[in-house]
Structures are given as C-alpha cells and as structure tokens.
Design brief:
alpha+beta, Rossmann fold, four-stranded mixed beta sheet, two-stranded antiparallel ribbon, 8 helices, about 30% helix, extended
Length: about 280
C-alpha cells in the first residue's frame, strides 16, 4: 500500500491532517474511508433523489389495509429518501448486502470489485457504513435490524455495527446452515453463514416468541383421544451427550413390564474429533 505524500501540502493542510489523525479512534475498526469516495454518496450531497410512481403497476387488494411500497433503484438513494418520509418509523429492517467475495457480487462506483483490488475491504466498509448509518435513523426506538453475511466480511461487519449501533445493542449472531458439506473437501468445509442482529435502543425491543403460532405448529398431531386431551406432539426421549454414562441411563418401563432404551442411542459416543479421524 503506497504511503501518502505530504510534501506538497500547505501549513493549513498539514494542520488539518494532524487534527484528523488525532481525532481518530484508538480502538475499533479503522479503514481508509477517504481514499476512494463513493460517487453516489457525493452526488447526494448536492442533489436530492426523488421517487416517481410508476402508474399501472400498483396491486390493490384492500384499501383499508396499510400501503406497501416497492422501491427500485440504488439502495443509497432509497434510504436517503426514506429518511425524509419514514425517519424513526421502521420497526424491523432486514438487509442482504453483497458479501464481497470478489466474484462479481459487489459493485463500487459502477465497477465490480475483484479479489485483487487493493482497496477491496475499504470500499466495502465505506459502502456499508453509509447505508447502515441511514438505516439506523429509520428505526424506531424499539427497532431491530438483521444483516446477512458470510465469512468474507463477517468480522469486519461486526466491528462496523458495534461502532454504528453500539456494542451494547448487539443481540446475537445467528449461525445457519446454508449448504451441505462437499464430499471431496480437502479442508474443513464452510457450510454456514450468519445473521447479525442489533437493536436501536437496549431494553426497548420485544422479540419474544409468538406463543399462539408456536403452539399451533408444535401440537399438530391428532388421534382418537383428541376430544379429551386435544392435539399432541411427539418428542425424542433420548438425549445424546458427549460420552455415555451409566448414571444417565434411564430405561422406560412399558405396559407389559418390559424395558426399552429410547432409539438405541444410549451408548452414543461423540468421537468425531479424534486423532484417527483427523489424520
């Protein structure tokens, strides 16, 4: 990475640089935000984006229900406009940004950013920071945001969100299985992605389970006794641990007096990470 040349700067310009350096944070995520400015952001400093309705595309089912809007265009333009119309009014935001894999999935200033781009991560962080700052302003005080990401930028995104939303407003990092492992993988195969979850203000967001919906889905089986006890659900009575222990073995006594061990897994041993399996 080439160093900046300060030899041609005036005294006032040098003082400005020093003030910026002294004002920078000493802990957290640091990147060269000013090296490659984003054109769409600089354009919006002097020009306000305007939404135009496309007549004939609306879908009306019930005029008494809330109106939903589908916006097509640059997401920075859309977020900028929404900050004039819906600032502080959005309860939930979900975004699925480009993962910056270097495989033509992320455009910056109308050009794809590849893996060999020196400023690849700085461009992505600049791109994300501007949009997350706008998204934060849209949230209500009880608002919550979900952000999908993978290993290419997950670590950087976590630090960026800590800076924008506040580390104290981090709720969780949801890990989900996005694909199955390859049978011919030469190393440990990555099969998971992430969803970072942040709230606008701590203690004001209610994200408890919808009890009615949960019970309807859970108690979905019926039999001849439904009128007496209602619907029921099935459960696995066997609980596999890391290692089998006699003290944790509880056979079930059947009506005819015989005993059974659920699923036959009571002597389950988790030896997946043994030296033999890794060699």
């Amino acid at each position: 990475m080439a160093k900046k040349d300060y030899s041609n700067l005036t005294k006032d310009q040098l003082l400005e640089v020093i003030e910026k350096l002294e004002g920078k944070k000493k802990y957290g995520l640091v990147w060269d935000e000013e090296r490659v400015p984003e054109k769409v952001v600089t354009d919006c400093q002097d020009k306000l984006p305007v939404l135009t309705e496309v007549k004939g595309k609306e879908i009306t089912t019930d005029e008494n229900e809330p109106t939903h809007i589908l916006i097509e265009g640059d997401n920075y333009h859309a977020l900028s406009v929404l900050n004039y119309t819906h600032k502080g009014k959005i309860d939930l935001i979900y975004i699925d940004p480009p993962y910056n894999t270097g495989n033509n999935d992320f455009k910056y200033n109308d050009k794809f950013v590849d893996k060999n781009d020196t400023w690849r991560h700085s461009k992505w962080l600049t791109f994300m920071s501007k949009r997350l700052e706008l998204a934060k302003e849209l949230l209500t005080e009880k608002g919550i945001i979900f952000i999908s990401i993978d290993d290419n930028e997950q670590a950087q995104l976590k630090l960026l969100c800590n800076a924008i939303f506040g580390e104290e407003n981090f709720i969780t990092n949801i890990i989900w299985e996005s694909k199955t492992g390859a049978s011919d993988a030469k190393t440990i195969d990555t099969i998971t992605e992430y969803i970072l979850v942040y709230v606008k203000s701590p203690g004001k967001t209610n994200y408890s389970r919808n009890k009615f919906s949960y019970e309807v889905k859970r108690y979905r089986f019926t039999d001849e006794y439904e009128e007496i006890r209602g619907p029921h659900y099935t459960d696995n009575l066997d609980r596999g641990g890391l290692r089998y222990s006699d003290s944790l073995n509880f056979p079930i006594v059947c009506q005819d007096g015989t005993t059974t061990n659920p699923n036959g897994r009571t002597e389950f041993v988790n030896n997946g990470w043994t030296e033999e399996n890794l060699s």
